[in-house]
Design a protein that fits this description.
Blueprint lengths: L15 H8 L3 H18 L6 H19 L5 H11 L3 H13 L16
Length: 117
């Protein structure tokens, strides 16, 4: 495990974008992490009363995570990015609600197309 990716000391970059640029080992990993970041950001704007939107954002997050992991990104790195995205107490509450209320869906990994170019 690369401890640099999980180190949240004073030297930790303030933005997810900077963290991505410091932790992606290749352009493909950078593109994958940017998609994970974008999917995580969509959680912050979710209307939890809109089940269709919640399902769509959940699927987008699962696909982004899967595609990132096909490039060698670890779940620990995805979690570290999530920690940066949901640092504030308000954002942490949104994430907690998302994790509690998002549907449990199983995607067919053979049907997922990862466009990371």
């Amino acid at each position: 495990m690369n401890t640099k990716t999980l180190n949240f000391s004073e030297q930790t970059p303030a933005t997810p974008e900077h963290w991505i640029s410091q932790n992606a080992a290749s352009n493909q990993q950078k593109q994958a992490l940017l998609k994970v970041n974008q999917a995580q950001q969509r959680i912050k704007q979710l209307d939890f009363a809109n089940n269709t939107e919640v399902f769509k954002v959940t699927k987008e997050n699962q696909v982004a995570n899967h595609c990132a992991m096909t490039t060698g990104i670890t779940l620990d790195q995805i979690d570290a990015l999530r920690a940066l995205n949901f640092q504030s107490p308000h954002d942490a509450q949104i994430l907690a609600q998302y994790l509690r209320d998002s549907p449990r869906i199983k995607l067919d990994v053979n049907a997922i197309q990862c466009d990371l170019s």
